Amino acid sequence: MFQFTLLLFVYLHFAYAQGDVLVYLCSQFCGRPVTCSAPLLALLPTLLAALALRAVRRLLAPRRIAKTIASVSVAWFSAAVPSLPFASLRWQCGLLAAALLMVWAGWQIDRYYQRRHGPARSPWQKFLPRALQLLLLLLYIGLGTAVPDTVHYELRTAAALRSPQPERAYRVGEVELAATPRLFALRSFLLATTQPRGLGDHLFQQPIPPGGSGLLLLPTDRRQALILPPDSLTRLLGLAPQPAESPISYLRRCAEAATRGQSCERPPQLPVDYYLCGLLLDRQLDQFAAEVTRYYPQSVRQSRLPRYYAQALVWYARVRTHPTVIYRDAAIEANLRDYLDLSRTLSPGPQRVNLLRRSYGETYWWWYEYGSSGTAQQP
Length: 379
Hints:
Layout: H1 2-17, H2 19-30, H3 38-41, H4 43-60, H5 66-83, H6 89-117, H7 123-144, H8 149-162, H9 181-194, H10 222-227, H11 231-237, H12 247-259, H13 269-281, H14 285-295, H15 297-301, H16 307-319, H17 330-345, H18 350-360, H19 364-370
Helix pairs in contact: 1-2, 1-4, 1-5, 1-7, 4-5, 5-6, 5-7, 6-7, 8-9, 12-13, 13-14, 14-16
């Protein structure tokens, strides 16, 4: 029963808690993105764990400590394997040291019950030390696996983006405030490709890590290539970045190439969307006002811009002495007045920032004034 419970936990650990990591490890082994069922793939490490359990027990039989060493070996395998791409050597050494400590603790528990009750122990006296050892092993597996939550969000978001229902991707970790540049880029890719009004309606609703327009671009490292290749985005933008080209220059080039020879009022949305949002992230308000008027002149005149483009223009008219664009939206202007009134009643400092964030954290003006270090908690 002890072995069955341990192996069942190992299977659930690999299939569900670390299923995304297991698929990523398989992709690393194959050298390309792999799409497979994590519950099915988890059968392989569970089988290896069962074989290791049996082999160690046979190798060390008839020593009483054989069962303890075998079960701790399985626990160490279950925690160390998912941690391989993400844990430092120091962590892996600590994990091994903790496993040796678990063997010593299991041996001491066995000796204590043997010395106190002798061979003629009741079923309860036999069950209690095994249950205690099992509990320690399960805690060791759960706490010893060194995969940050943000890595899980990245892997699961990328997997959902590759699936037939990419809308599921944004539900991954949506209530968490932690975000990495990779996770932000993946979520922005989702919003730009699935929302009717694109990034301009949703960009600042999500946690934003420190950085500017470069946050919109998918990283080009090996991990990105194995979960969602960077050319997934560059194909949609229409051009590949050039060496030493800044992110905003690259996005400008993509927007200009996509709209060349076409009506400016109805351009291909995604390249222009990325360029305008890049200007907002870089706080280039004057350039943004000029470009949004260039690409969406009729929408500016008729006050039909996406949410954050409209907020940025209203804020631009407020902070510039001689604005070149005046955008009218009564609801947005009233919201900005409320924000400024509340801001004037609060003393400068962290409390002011947090109180304003509570009510206006998803507005462009709050991000413009206080979001220089990002709005996401650092993982």
